[in-house]
Design goal:
By secondary structure, the protein is an alpha/beta fold. Helices cover 41% and strands 18% of the residues. The chain has one domain: NAD(P)-binding Rossmann-like Domain (Rossmann fold). The strands form four sheets. It has a six-stranded parallel sheet, sandwiched between helices. The protein binds NADP nicotinamide-adenine-dinucleotide phosphate.
């Protein structure tokens, strides 16, 4: 079966790379990098969408440097917020659906338990606020959208926690890792498989869904498994967030409740541990 004509923004990014690999065998994919299409250029966005005539737009473009967003808030709000509205308006004009990727950083992390789609966002950072604006702009201009909120993503072709920990562990005898922020690591391949499902199912439009791999862990617990799998002996020291002050505040608990997406898609979600093993095996990080 060939799926809709799909247009991916933010090509070359971590998620977009995995998405292209998953979708290209089953659909006609146009993927444009920032250099080819800057989504903050409203006219260029409209021209591109009118030219490509996609059935589905997947917005994988974003300003993802969470700490830098604090001092570069105008750009963050423009790329992650206002520009999502440009894509939505172009989608509305051409009749395309739009699948947009959002984040757990919309939440303040004070909830005891995983966040559902109906929990009230209360972002702690500029990045979180800009992504919330993106969701609002999307829904303001079109009904034919799906918002997928995800978290703690890693995969090929992107700066991510797994690669950073491995790199640091090779350079240092001991590493301090935050042990009081909890969430669920998410492999880009798993999110891409779910996005493929949404490309095929327009009947769920107008809704928001949460997705991550299964299981909740702290950054410290995640790092411990990464080192265990790679057999690197570097000592890991659990620390509190207060020991690592960063420009952007992060939620302490941002686990996402996946009840809705499981019911709607019927997709089996694997554990973060199984996904991590596959990523490390595939990328030669496990010998
Ligand atoms: N990574 C995570 O842990 C995580 C967690 C939750 C949600 N998300 C969301 O998932 C989505 C994909 O994230 P990712 O991790 O794949 O990010 P990424 O690797 O940083 O990819 C984002 C891509 O967007 C491009 N981009 C930036 N500004 C643009 C613009 N104005 N016009 C067009 N393209 C632009 C970037 O290009 P340059 O690099 O050349 O600027 C980059 O290629 C984002 O919406 C992000 O908010 C990510």
């Amino acid at each position: 079966m060939t799926l809709a004509n799909v247009f991916i923004t933010g090509a070359g990014g971590m998620l977009a790379t995995a998405l292209e690999a998953v979708l290209k065998p089953v659909s006609h994919v146009t993927a444009l990098t920032e250099a080819q299409l800057d989504i903050t250029d409203k006219q260029a966005v409209l021209r591109a969408v009118q030219g490509i005539k996609p059935g589905v737009i997947i917005n994988a473009a974003a300003y993802t440097a969470v700490d830098r967003c604090e001092t570069d808030s105008e750009k963050a709000m423009l790329v992650n917020g206002t520009a999502v509205g440009y894509l939505a308006q172009a989608a509305q004009v051409t009749g395309a659906r739009i699948i947009h990727i959002s984040t757990d950083y919309l939440f303040d992390g004070r909830k005891d338990g995983p966040y559902t789609e109906t929990d009230e966002p209360n972002p702690l950072s500029v990045y979180g606020r800009s992504k919330l604006l993106g969701e609002q702009e999307l829904a303001r201009f079109t009904d034919k959208y799906v918002i997928l909120r995800t978290q703690w993503m890693y995969g090929e072709n992107g700066k991510n926690f797994v690669d950073t920990i491995l790199q640091l562990a090779q350079q240092k005898d001991e590493l301090k890792v935050v042990d009081d922020q909890y969430g669920s690591p998410t492999y880009t391949e798993d999110l891409s498989a779910v996005i493929r499902w949404f490309v095929e199912h327009s009947e769920v439009d107008g809704q928001t869904f949460h997705f991550s791999d299964e299981g909740v862990v702290s950054w410290f617990g995640f790092a411990r498994e990464i080192l265990k799998l790679s057999r690197i002996k570097t000592k890991l020291i659990p620390v509190d967030t207060s020991e690592f002050p960063r420009p952007a505040h992060r939620p302490h608990n941002s686990a996402l409740d996946k009840t809705k997406i499981k019911q709607v898609t019927n997709i089996d979600i694997r554990t973060w541990f199984d996904a991590l093993y596959e990523y490390m095996k595939k990328t030669g990080k496990i010998r």
